[in-house]
Amino acid sequence: MNDINTHMENDKRIKQIKNVTLQGSFINFILTVGKVIAGIVGNSTAMIADGIHSLSDFITDVIVIVFIKVSGKEKDKNHHYGHGKYETFATMLISFALIIVGFGILYTGAVKIIDSLNGELIEKPGFIALYAALISIVFKEGLFWYTKIEGKKLNSQAMIANAWHHRSDAFSSIGTALGISGAILLGERWRILDPIAGIIVSFFILKVAWDIAKPSIDELLDSSLPETTEKELEEIVKRTKGVEFFHNLRTRKIGENISVEVHIKVDKNMTVELSHKIATEIEITVRKRFGERSHVIVH
């Protein structure tokens, strides 16, 4: 019965993640088309680049939808620990996409600044490009908070990573808006504000990308759980009646689930049946605290 309930809860979780991501992908597609058109009509290379950034958001939405569906599958003969790391892999891909976008904006801005210092005049953008940037900021910041809140509710690192990708697009649009408004209102000499703002924004994007990438890389390399989590697991084992000593605690993360192995020592005169009950009690307590799909092995 518990397995059925767990499976139903997991299916519900996958469906909710998919719905939230689909809503974001629809908005990203509209923004991508709108910003590219505004960039072309408004003679703004910054806005065209911003539109391409939105396209990268749309691509990562697709990555989340595909990999979340796979990560929700139950364990099989080829994946004894389930498919949770597919979600981790998706999160890492999103972070790498952010890194590529960040370096792309950095490179484009640097080239524009060098060209401007060499006497090349940056073309004046139109107001349509500025309006597109302001609309993008509002929608992308809204998507960030919506996706982040839902991602935390559903314990989905891929969704939270995607939320930060939404915010990186909002940062990009802020830089674009500042550059375009400066180019329009302050004259030819100040058109260099566009690439300068883009470079500043690129550093924010790269910082966010690294913050997202590191936990994913750690998980894929089977790094241990945080020290605070391990301390909590140790307390669970210590508090279990009948445990005299424990050692060789090993932990790791598998998608949204945790995996725990520990060796315990009990009274040597205790029956095998009673020893097994103590081990089972630890497993039940850990699963109650960290989720029914936690992998717990007590030797």
What is the secondary structure topology, with strand pairs?
Elements: H1 2-41, H2 45-71, H3 85-117, H4 127-153, H5 157-185, H6 193-220, H7 227-239, E1 245-254, E2 257-265, H8 272-290, E3 295-298
Parallel strand pairs: 2-3
Antiparallel strand pairs: 1-2
Helix pairs in contact: 1-2, 1-4, 2-3, 2-5, 3-5, 3-6, 4-5, 5-6
Tag the structure with descriptive keywords:
299 residues, 8% strand, elongated, mainly alpha, 3-stranded mixed sheet, 3 strands
Fold and architecture overview:
The chain has helices at residues 2-41, 45-71, 85-117, 127-153, 157-185, 193-220, 227-239, 272-290; strands at residues 245-254, 257-265, 295-298. The protein has 299 residues and is mainly α. It starts with a helix and ends with a strand. 38% of the residues are buried.
Unreliable segments of 5+ consecutive residues: none
Distance between the termini: 26 Å
Mean of residue pLDDT?
Answer: 77
Shape: elongated
Order of strands, main sheet, comes to 1-2-3
**Strand coverage percent:** 5-15%
Helical proportion, percent range: over 70%
Cα Rg: 25 Å
The string of secondary-structure elements, in order, is HHHHHHHEEHE
Helix/strand structural class = mainly alpha
Biggest sheet statistics: 3 strands, mixed
User: How many beta-strand segments?
Assistant: 3
How many DSSP helices?
Answer: 8
